[in-house]
Amino acid sequence: MTKKQMILFLSWRDIDHPSAGGAEVFTTEMLKRCESKKDYNIVHFSTKVEGCERVTKKDGIIYIKNGNWISVIFHAMMFYFLNMKRIKFVVDQCNTHRFFTPFWVPKDKGVFFIHQLTREIWKIKMSRIFAFMGEKSEDLLLKIYNRRKALTVSNSTRSDLLDVGFETNNIAILPEGVDHKPITKPLACKRDNQLMIYVGRYSEYKGLPDATKAFIKYLKINPYAQFVIIGKKNEDYIKNVLEPLCRENNITLSDTYNPKNHRTLTLLGRVSEEDKLMYMEKAKLLVYPSRREGWGLGVTEAAILGTPSIVYNSAGLRDAVNLGQAGVLCKVNNSDELFENIKSLMFDHLSYEKFRYEAYKYSLQFRWENTASAFDEFVGKAA
Questions:
Q1: 126: Cβ–Cβ under 8 A, 6 or more apart, which residues?
Q2: Whole-model pTM?
Q3: Taking a C-beta distance cutoff of 8 angstroms, is the pair 44, 113 a contact?
């Protein structure tokens, strides 16, 4: 390493971690493009990953892996104290796990980075008492950081941070980014297209049961409708939730998409990035009724390929559809409202084309280059 000052990113996962998701993609794509590398050494510190080297350098970023999800905090602290004179900022990335940097990094060096709060997800995933404890502890843990500079990805999360005492002038928004290129050819006509897709985890809070129930209801008025689910399969979830729903309504489950198969719910599982984008472009609608997101990147990815989304009015997703201007925002977050919006957009061609065009136009601003530029601007002001 040269003697340049350092920006230290702390996260319990990096892009090599088996459980890496959108937050890890965001950080990787942003850092590989940022100009701050010219002025600073950027180090990303996270947990060990089996089969990966402890120290690597990629795209100008130094990646260090050490410890497990608990001991990584100790290893990060040791790295900080050994290099503290050269470290300009420490970015504590909160993705459930955090590094409690307010207890060991001075305020002027500390930066808090969070995509989304947990909030109502506690009640969906936990029993009542654990949900209560989770909600209360979340506020307490956030308040530890609320006098520090903060980074987030949407106005929804920014508002949540303001509610727990973060200062307006200390919060910067880093816009989401999309890697693939926008469609430059005229948008293909989808008037007779009956394909809906869902891209995400098999989870109640992501709204998969509501999306499935809405599809089943829509099948009653349009037996030619198709619904494809893309995302890593959860066999227990399929057995306990999706199979009973399909069995009760005489719907077949399939692992392979065939447009000639009717009354079929297709579970593709995890697919390549190319195939995911192909289905996003092919579909007429993306249905994504999540209860909370940092942003809703799949909505933007689909929009830039000419496919609008129907989403719940929830944190992150309302930002991704520009408060209902660039996609359909449900007035009530339930499967009946989802069905009504699916029916409306499937049958009302003029309304569909309006949302489709606005979604596409809105999505054009979300490029990783813009994310990196926003981070560089933050670093410049904070320095």
A1: 134
A2: 0.89
A3: no
